[in-house]
Amino acid sequence: MVMNMKVVFNADDFGYSKGANFGIVEAYQNGPVRSTTIMAGMPGFDHAVGLAKENPGLKIGVHLTLSTGKSVGGVYHTLTDEDGKFLPLVEVERRVDAGKIDLVEVEAEYEAQIKKVIAAGIKPDHFDSHHHTHDLPGVAATFMKIARKYGVKARLYNRDLPQGEYEAIGSTDAFDEAFYDDTATLADLRRMISGHKVGSLEIMCHPAYVDHEIYSSSSYNVKRAYELYVLTSPETMAFFAEQGVELCSFSDL
Questions:
Q1: Stated pTM of the model
Q2: For the stretch 193-232, what's the b/e string if a residue is b when 16 or more beta carbons lie within 10 angstroms of its beta carbon?
Q3: Domains, the chain, ranges and CATH?
Q4: Helix (H) or strand (E) holding 165
C-alpha cells in the first residue's frame, strides 16, 4: 500500500473550450481531479470562470501560454503574428534556440494572462504552461521569477534545474506526464502510482468532452474523452482508495 502519498491530478486546458471545461468539472465532481489550470486567452475562458464559481473546491492555477491562441497583451515582435496570434510551437522553439525570443515580452504576456485571471475573481493556485514552454531556455528563469513574485507553487517539469529553485517557489516532489494518449489507461495509472515512492506527485491529464473547438484545433482531441472515462470510472476511484492515495491540489501540499 502507498502510505502518506499525496497526488495532484491537474487537468490542463481549462478555458480551452466548453467541452474542455465541462470535462474537467466532471473529472473533479466524479473523479480524482482537484486542480486545474486555466488558459486566459482561449474562447472558453469566461465559461470556465463561471464553472469555477460554481465549484469552489476545484483549485485553479494559470496555464501560461505562448504557443496557442491569441495573446492577452496584444501584438509582440517576437511572440505573435501581426494579429496577435501566438506562433506555432515549432517556431517558438526555433526562435528560442536562435536567441530571437524577447524575454521582456514573455514576462509582459505572462503578467497580462495572470492579471486577467485575477481580475475574473480567481486566486491562482499555481502556475504551469501549455506545451511546457515554461521549460524552454531563458523562459524558465522568467517563469520562476513570476512564480516567486506571485507567491504560488509551480509545476515541476525540468528535473535539470537546481532543486533549490523549485524549493524556493514550491512544487510536488515529482511530476508524471505519462497519462496521455495510448498510456491514458487505468493500468498505466497503477504503474505511475506504484512507481513513485515520494511524498507528493503531480499527474498531468486532459479530460474533456470533444466539441468542435477541440476537434478542429487540437491535435490531441478524441483521446481527451477517453481520459475522462478512465478518470471517472469506479474502478479507478476504488484503486486510489485501496492504495491510500490522498487526492489533493497544490494548495494542500
A1: 0.94
A2: beebeeebbbbbbbbbbbbebbeeebeebeebeebbebbb
A3: 5-252 (3.20.20.370)
A4: helix 163-169
